[in-house]
Amino acid sequence: MRPRQEITDMFSTFVQLERGRFSKWLTDAKLYRNMQNHLEHSSSAFKSENFWALYWYNQWHSGFNNLARMHLLAYLQEPCYWVAAKTVAKFNFSQYMLADYFQMAIAEVETILKDFNPEKSSSLKAYAIMAMSSRLKDILRQRKEADICTNWALLRKVSKKLLSEALGEAGLSQSAIAQYRLAWTCFKELYIQNQPGGNSQLPEPNRQLWEAIANLYNHQRQSQITQTTEQRNAQTIEQWLTQTALYVRAYLFPSVKSLNAFKQNDDTTITFDLPDPSSDSLMADMIAEEDVQNRQNQISQMSGVLLKALHSLDVQSQEVLKLYYEQGLTQQQIVQQLQMSQPTVSRKLVKGRESILAALIRWSQDLNISVNSNQIKDMSLALEEWLRNQYGGTT
């Protein structure tokens, strides 16, 4: 992939893929004109990539600028592609290609923007790389989990909300949805609650259990379903629940269409078909608490890595960093207070930060996050912010 160099291009161009690989950048004329207009009316001091990323993020967050989301989507094309390339290299056994992973990453942009907190991270791109990589790993893990689950284990995991959405997406009427949902409730009450909690290979109910589930359904249908419905036998209930499991699988993991082509309208504005990223995460309904815990653990791990690297520095380096970030002293003031030479103070500041940054890079690479010169620059800015927060300084 040829990285974009101009600010205008960063916020107005989109990746075109051919044969599953990067082909070229396509320009959205409306976004390009809008970006040019903003650059012409801004001072030269505020033309950095990071400034405009945070500017469009704030515009998107406020909801007052309809183009802000598209500017951000254009900006995050490179992180999406980098993460997709890294994922396809790591999981080459998967049925998905680079274009498929790229589409998955693009579909996560809305979630990434919602979770991003500029008060904790000054670089949207660095955050997006880390968050997208984690999200794609979750999707693959969930895909594998769903594949190995039997129908009965899957029906045990699924929530009532997701079940109803899956049945609705399958085109069932409200009356049919109510009947399928009641059959599922009876199934859970008589069978799944008595099975081991962590078993993904739950066996099929025997004939006696199917009869009991059908009897419970027939007993509850008049009070639980508003419409008048017929009695159902065990064979029908079994067919319903088997089909329900298929509907849930199809809803959780619809077929992926590779993004190998873009559509272009008359005014050269580029559009493309994507799943709605603003909709609720599907499999997350089943393991939402686990996902939250994973993110919290990752943040905690990163903080631990930075603290360990900081505390591994020699005593003088730690003292120099403390005076610089906590008390806001200049290098010359630190020279006077610690009775060191100015080159020594400068070296300890630089080497101390480089040592902590190196630890952060190693940790990122251990998580299979691609790190290039641009990411290192963003991570360096994030580290600077972390040091200020760590010491409570204001410099």
From TrEMBL:
It comes from the Bacteria. Residues 309-354 form the RNA polymerase sigma-70 region domain. GO terms for molecular function: DNA binding; sigma factor activity. GO terms for biological process: DNA-templated transcription initiation. It holds the Pfam family Sigma70_r4. Keywords: DNA-binding, Sigma factor, Transcription, Transcription regulation. SUPFAM superfamilies: Sigma3 and sigma4 domains of RNA polymerase sigma factors (SSF88659). This is Sigma-70 family RNA polymerase sigma factor.
